Amino acid sequence: MGEIYQKFLKESAKKAFDLEHRYKINYNIGKYNEAVLKGKKQFRDIELARKRAAFLKHRIINNLEKYLIEFAANFEKNGGKIIWAQDTDEATHEILALLHKNNAKQVVKSKSMTTEEIELNEVLEQNNIEIVETDLGEYIVQIAGEKPYHIVTPAMHKSRDDIAQLFHEKFNTPRESSPEELTNYVREKLRKKFVNADIGITGGNFLIADIGAVCITENEGNGLMSTAFPKIHIAVVGIEKLIPSLKDMDLFWPLLASYGTGQYITVYNSIFSGPRKEGEIDGPEEMYLVLLENNRSEILKHEKQRNALTCIRCGACLNACPVYKNIGGHTYNNTYSGPIGSVISPHLKGMQDYKHLSFASSLCGSCTEVCPVKIPLHEMLLDNRNESVKLGYSKLGEKISISSMNTFLSKRKRMDMFSPKLKNIGMQLIF
């Protein structure tokens, strides 16, 4: 058994019996569930909205090259520059080259799972470039020396007391500081970083093909601040984040907000169509977009699993998953956790090392039920399991037990050779 799998088994066993952890997660997800019920009420027909969104994203994924060409032409027409990155190394190399070219020493970054995927923070720190997370949740896990726990809520695993203690240890703030006081402290600290930053880095929730623009949706305004002050804006986005047209935003933004945080719409919604134009008084002088492939074509190869690339990263499947709620986000040891992570990670990072994630599921179907773009996640987990067996990645013991079961159960005569008591004992011993 691989080292990654062994680590997963050890950490999941530990987390599953950590009652304090379970309380925090269930409390936070419970609050989320209440909010989502209210958020969905803005839709007259939520099922129709989901079907429309699923149809549009499905059309994009099955015609990805066409929409990528359209988007790239329009983005470059607006003055933006595109860097096509095949993998993590290529993406980080190109970003580093840009930073060195502009003698950048300070970088501010808004919340982005794609930059987590390429471990950009670690790369810049190794090259003596200060990079500061500006989203409050991301900032908390950064100073704690941790990875994000959740796609949408990076510090979901921490209580207000945990955060107060962390800030007390790192910045000597009063141990009894309220959430409002800590937020104000971070706000003051980050304002100076925004003003002095050489470069701002963001992700992107959507790429709009027909106008060539990058969209960011957020609640704190840090994405907007990360692009307003620095002279250079670098966006890092996966190639699958495309949507056809600007007119589709009236569907996707409310849908993402409702399923992601339970809001009707998030507080700040920005569309970046390139650098500052002549006559404009704010915005970056240059804008670069790193379009990341990073094995997404491996998912595209599969007719069934391909649909996982329609994900809009709302995090709803994580909050619904009984496995995630027991073992937590860090146990997956991967950028993308929960059901969606279990579907895509074996293809993004290698079936042999990450196939176990597809088996870490009850197959209850809750993830499929809550997905706003109707991805059949539990069925895809079965497809992954099937593929891992066909590729020969199942253990010898599994092969023997499945073969024995198939032989024994395929004929009634063989089953009747033993008494019910012996059959039960045999089943218990084998399985």
Outline the fold blueprint.
Elements: H1 3-16, H2 19-39, H3 46-62, H4 64-77, E1 81-85, H5 88-101, E2 106-109, H6 113-117, H7 120-126, E3 130-133, H8 136-143, H9 160-171, H10 179-196, E4 199-202, E5 206-208, E6 213-218, H11 222-228, E7 232-238, E8 242-243, H12 249-260, E9 268-272, E10 286-292, H13 296-300, H14 316-320, H15 322-327, H16 338-349, H17 351-354, H18 356-359, H19 366-370, H20 377-390, H21 396-409, H22 412-415, H23 420-430
Parallel strand pairs: 1-10, 2-3, 2-4, 4-7, 5-8, 7-10
Antiparallel strand pairs: 5-6, 6-9
How would you describe this protein?
- The protein is α/β, with parallel strands linked by helices.
- The chain folds into three domains: 3-35 and 304-390, Fumarate Reductase Iron-sulfur Protein, Chain B, domain 2; 44-294, Rossmann fold (3-Layer(aba) Sandwich), CATH 3.40.50; 404-430, no CATH class.
- Helix content is 54%, strand content 11%.
- It contains 23 helices and ten strands.
- The protein has helices spanning 3-16, 19-39, 46-62, 64-77, 88-101, 113-117, 120-126, 136-143, 160-171, 179-196, 222-228, 249-260, 296-300, 316-320, 322-327, 338-349, 351-354, 356-359, 366-370, 377-390, 396-409, 412-415, 420-430; strands at 81-85, 106-109, 130-133, 199-202, 206-208, 213-218, 232-238, 242-243, 268-272, 286-292.
- The strands form two sheets. The chain has a six-stranded parallel sheet with strand order 1-10-7-4-2-3, sandwiched between helices.
- Strand 5 and strand 6 (213-218) form a beta hairpin.
- It is globular, with a radius of gyration of 23 Å.
- The mean pLDDT is 93.
